[in-house]
TrEMBL record:
GO terms for cellular component: chloroplast stroma. Keywords: Heme biosynthesis, Oxidoreductase, Porphyrin biosynthesis. This is coproporphyrinogen oxidase. Gene3D superfamilies: Coproporphyrinogen III oxidase, aerobic (3.40.1500.10). It comes from Adiantum capillus-veneris (Maidenhair fern). The keyword Oxidoreductase applies.
Amino acid sequence: MASRCEVFNSSAICFPSSLLKKPSSHAAFSPRTLLATNNGARRRDSTRLCVVAMTTVEAIEQEQMMSERPDTLLRDSEHEAVEAVDGCSFREDSWVRPGGGGGISRVLQDGNVWEKAGVNVSVVYGTMPPEAYRAATSTSGIPVNKAGRVPFFASGISSVMHPKNPFAPTVHFNYRYFETDAPEGVSGAPRAWWFGGGTDLTPSYVFDEDAKHFHQIQKEACDKFDPEFYPRFKKWCDDYFLIKHRGERRGIGGIFFDDLNDRDPDEIFAFASECTNSVIPAYIPLIDKRKDTPFESKHKAWQQIRRGRYVEFNLVYDRGTTFGLRTGGRIESILMSLPLTARWEYDHCPQEGTEEWKLLDACKNPKEWL
């Protein structure tokens, strides 16, 4: 697999084939330049690249904020589209991980249209405990009682946008690449690599035409690569976003896949890139249509209850959140996906036939929107 560093819509995603050799020291990533090669995974130094020599990668250390703003890894397409609709600007924080890697977080908070909108980009590497490996993949892979820490490389982009208007939907997307080496204490274990990610919609009120538009854009992105992708990844999305203790999904789905390595990595990379490119045309028209819809306090209260469900899924089941918490990740970036406000009411059950019940029914019984 050829090493590369490419622009992945709003992020630079790197998937080098030989990054995981154990060197005597690591150069910590500063989010200015991300270049890798086949030969020993060298990163090109430059006058604008900060290099921090590390003598050990025994543990994943806490990230630290950078003292100066770097050249951004985030392309302007997504955040400019959001700022154009909202009228407010993103705050940008850049951070480095002394143990290996770094990233950029952009957050628009308490804007005119969005209560909270954020984009995270990260490229990190080091070693992780076996339980973090199991959180990162759906396969068991490593014997619980035999493995030591697992060398890894991970890069990805994630974004969540929570609008203020209860008739406007929340969107989430995340696309990532993982590579792991043989864990300590398990001789002969193979190196593994995989892609994962997806895009899904979480409305508080269901509009059939909105759901059809969103899913149609996802299907078109999938169909460019394989007509079996959309039905396969749509079902995977419905299954993945199940809040098991509630018996309902977080939202009305989209597409989701993980541990994807069954074809040429360049093809999967191109597919994931196409999916990120589809987010704006799938989502922004829905915001334009719903952001100014009049609403009452009862609509806002229902939105807050559904936001509570969002929080439950992310903190209990979400694989990315779990991985970040178990590897000592930067907490502000990990919890960026949570809304500013949420609500829990005791034994709240919407009356059958209401618009609130319609949404809950769609979350309990996933629909074929196309």
